[in-house]
Amino acid sequence: MASIAIDGPAGAGKSTIAKQVAKKLGFIYVDTGAMYRAIAHYLVQNNINIENNDELKAACESINIAIKYENDAQQVYLNGENVTPFLRTEETGNMASKSSAKAPVREALLGLQRDMAKEYNVVMDGRDIGTNVLPDAEVKIYLTASSKERANRRYKELIEKGEVADLDKIEADIIERDERDMNRDIAPLKQADDAVLVDSSFMTIDEVVNAIMSEAEKIA
Ligand code: DC
Question: Residue 117: which CATH number?
C-alpha cells in the first residue's frame, strides 16, 4: 500500500487539495482532523473536563470512532452515530485543537489511522502524519500559507455562506491555533525532515494539486 502524508496548519487548504489528489490517484482520502473533531464533539456534549486526566481517559475509552465512505465522502461515526455534520464548527475546531494535545485522545486515534494506511492506498492529512503516524509514507508534503492568507480564505468562505465574519479575529484565532498545534508536547505540528514544503500563499488550488501530483508520480 502507498501513502501520501499532507501536514500543515489550520486553513492551509489541506482537505481541498488532499481530496483532489486522492481522486486523481484513486486513493482514499483520510481526514484525521475530522477524527479529532469527533472526539472534541463528544467531549463538549458530555461536559468532560479535559484537564482531568482520569476523566479524559475514561471518556476516551468509552469512545468508538469508525470511518466509512458514502458517495466518496468520509463519514465519521462516533459510537455508531454519524457526527460528520457537527464537526466543522469553530467551537468544535477550537476544542479539537485543545483536546488533541492530550495523550489519551491521541492514543485513541493512532491505531485507527495506521490501520487505514495498512488496508488502503491513502492520502492522509493532519498535523503529525509524516512525522508520527506514517513515518514511512512514500510522499510527505508540508502544506502551509501565511496566516494573513489563511485568514482571508476563511473570511471569504464565511461571507459567501452569508455569515458575519471579522477578519482580524479570524487571523488571531488562526495564530492561536498554530501556537497550540506547534508547541504541544506530543506529536506537535512540524515539517518532517523528508517532507516537501509547499507554500500555497500565492498558488492556485490547481497549482498546488499539480505540485503534489508531480511528487506522487515519482513513486508510481
Ligand atoms: O485539520 P482540522 O482543523 O480539522 O484539525 C482540528 C484539530 O485537530 C487541529 O487544531 C489539531 C488537531 N489535529 C491533530 O492534532 N492531529 C492531526 N493529525 C489532525 C488534527
Answer: 3.40.50.300
- The pLDDT score that the predictor gives to residue 90 is 83
Q: Ligand 1 atom closest to Cα of 100?
A: 15
Quick one: pLDDT band at residue 19, thresholds 50, 70, 90? Answer: very high
Average pLDDT for 11-33: 97
Whose cell is 485543545? That residue is: 98
Q: Is the C-beta atom of 37 inside 6 A of ligand 1?
A: yes
pLDDT digits (tens, 9 = 90+) for 166-179: 999 999 999 999 99
Q: How far does the centroid of ligand 1 lie from the alpha carbon of residue 151, in Å?
A: 17
Neighbour-count burial for 55-92, b at 16+ CB within 10 Å, e otherwise = bbbebbeebebebeeeeeebebebeeeebbebbeeeeb
Domain count, the chain: 1
Looking at ligand 1, which residue's alpha carbon is closest to its atom 10?
97
Residue 220 has pLDDT above 70, yes or no: no
Q: Indicate which residue's Cα is closest to atom 1 of ligand 1.
A: 33
Which residue, by CA, sits nearest to atom 18 of ligand 1? 126
Question: What's the length of the chain?
Answer: 220
By residue range, what is the domain housing residue 48? 3-219
User: Atom 14 (ligand 1): residue with closest C-alpha?
Assistant: 127
